[in-house]
Amino acid sequence: MSTEDRESIRADELEQALEEYVDKANASPRAQKTLATWTCRVHIEAFDADDVRFTYVVDNGASQPVVRGLVGVPDLIVRGHSMDLAEIFWGDANPVSNYMQGAIKTQGRADDVMRLDAMAMFVFLGQ
Amino acid sequence: MTEQQQLSRALSLGGASAISTGLAFAAINFLGMAQLLDYISGPMSWVAVLAGGLMILGVRAVFSELNGMYPTAAGIRLWMSRAINDRLALIVTLTYMTAIVLVIAADAFIIGEAIAHVFNNGHTVAIIYVAALLVFATWMNLRGIKLAGAAEKIVTSVVVVGTVAIGLVAIVHHPTVPAGPTHSSSPLQALILGIFLYTAFEWVTTNAEEVVQPKIIPRAMLIAIIVLAVSQTVFTVAMGVTINADQRTTAYPQLLVAQQAMGHVGMLLMLGITALTAVNTFNGGFVTLSRFVYAVAREGKLPRAFTRLNDRAVPVLPVYLLGGSSLVLAVVVAATGSWVMVVSVCAALEMMIYAVAAYVVFRLRRKAPEIERPFRVVAGRPVAFAFTVVFGLLAVVSSVTVGKSTSATPLIFLAVVAALVTVYVYTVVPRLERREAEELAARRAARAAARAGRSEPAVTPDSP
């Protein structure tokens, strides 16, 4: 499916997905324990909509409230179609799978990509 | 949209160069040098090493073009799936991962034997050292302990500088080497082994997303090739003029070179250098393979058990499997003395992946000409096709040669691995993919319904 055929997600919808994701991540004992030493500033950008840009910070395993816009110097940048990004934070798709298939692109250390994926796994699969 | 150019922990040119060099300079390279000297005399061995470097420049061009098009840690897997298809990409990359297992096993074996030699322990004790090393490496990886960026640079620098220094001392002060068996002249074999000395330098392309300037990775690879060319040329010549053919058949020829050059102290220094090469190999190998297996499992192409993480976010089963299989292989190699075959299998796998990468460039030039290519292989398709043929042939030659003998054992081994992987990809993967696709479709349907429900206006009794 070309990107032109895909539905784009609005910024407020993705923001809501991110906020729910943050709440779930902070409520997951496994995520808190396993990622307790992980600190990462993530910039999330959709290439199909200029206003779909967010900053998500994990501070020693604790997810901070999501902020609109790209704030600070990131450790990890995640770019993709807004629907692909939304599916990750809804838990419908996993970050690594989207990444391996080229649906999302990242910049930053592979360790951080893996931890982002691990968090999604703990949150949505209860692993 | 302009891509952001800042990252807080970006990889520098120095860091990328150290990674590329460190990945290529494994303990097994010393065995590769020893085998190369079976085909060309010591004083002339620089020709083979540098010729190998020239060929590797072509490989660098191929990987630079692919990396420029799709800078990703998913590397050859993604590139192949774009050029050919995902099934074949999975078969090739899973087969290729065998190389990591082999190199880890070989390096553990070499260090175990080297320690046993230095401390005058017997063969059985050497096997115990090998096992202990791999158990320790597995434990370290399960604890999530990795070599940090600066430490990696230091380790690689010490290995390179130490090797060159000992090599130069050996060249200057070498004794008259007693005549041993004459060399069998085979330029092709010498070239293959010359290329082998540089293999794995291209793995730095998996760090492509850690740099903010795309040209860093191609430049790092070039620097690594130059560093490897110089250091390994010096040491190969040193080995050729210092020790005889019988000494080269040991599992630790580099120790004997150092001992001849600088006595017991030299041997201890070289033992330390050999151990450091393994630090890089274990560090890179365990992380790369475990992460790859985890990622493929998360894609739904390997059983979900491979996604299980421990409390340090380390994929447990891949690490255990890698440690266990390396241990078994290393003990088999130690017990049978078949390390020469390991070199052949690794060389064949690397030549194969170079042929595949060149073919991917060839295909993508036609299939995706519009994609930006910051780095381009000179003369494009004809050169890429030529590399495919050349490295394909070198892969075949490597797979039917063990030492100075013709042997189909490496080819049979690789064929068995490839066959098992193919059976898995065509029988098990479709089932796993179907399950993933069904679950994804169900989640998407539920999401679409939830979103539709939120966006529909409420119907009141008075509405039309």
Description of the structure:
With 127 residues, chain A is of the alpha+beta class. Chain A has helices spanning 11-27, 29-34, 82-90, 95-100, 110-125, and strands at residues 40-46, 53-59, 62-63, 67-68, 76-80, 104-108. In chain A, strands 1, 2, 3, 4, 5 and 6 form a six-stranded mixed beta sheet that branches. In chain A, β1 and β2 form a beta hairpin. Chain A is globular, with a radius of gyration of 13 Å. In chain A, 54% of the residues are buried. Chain B is 72% helix and 1% strand. Chain B starts with 12 loop residues before the first helix and ends in a 9-residue tail after the last helix. In chain B, a hairpin with a 2-residue loop joins β1 and β2. The chains are: A alpha+beta (127), B mainly alpha (464). At the A-B interface, β1, α4, β6 and α5 of A face α4, α12 and α16 of B.
Helix content of chain B: over 70%
What is the CA-CA span between the terminal residues of chain B? Answer: 46 Å
Order of helices and strands of chain B: HHHHHHHHHHHHHHHEEH
**H and E order of chain A:** HHEEEEEHHEH
Q: Mean pLDDT across all residues of chain A, rounded?
A: 90
Number of DSSP E strands of chain B: 2
Coarse structural class of chain B: mainly alpha
Cα(first) to Cα(last) distance of chain A is 31 Å
Spans of at least 5 consecutive residues with low confidence of chain B: 460-464
- The fraction of residues assigned to DSSP E strands of chain B is under 5%
- Strands ordered across the widest β-sheet of chain B: 1-2
Instruction: Please state the CA-atom Rg of chain B, rounded to the nearest Å.
Output: 24 Å
Helical percentage of chain A: 40-55%
Oligomerization state:
heterodimer
Tell me the total number of β-strands of chain A: 6
Helices of chain A, by number, come to 5
Low-confidence stretches of chain A: none
Q: Average pLDDT of chain B, to the nearest integer?
A: 90
Question: Biggest protein-protein interface?
Answer: A-B, 41 and 39 residues
Instruction: Give the biggest beta sheet of chain B.
Output: 2 strands, antiparallel
User: What kind of sheet is the major sheet of chain A?
Assistant: 6 strands, mixed
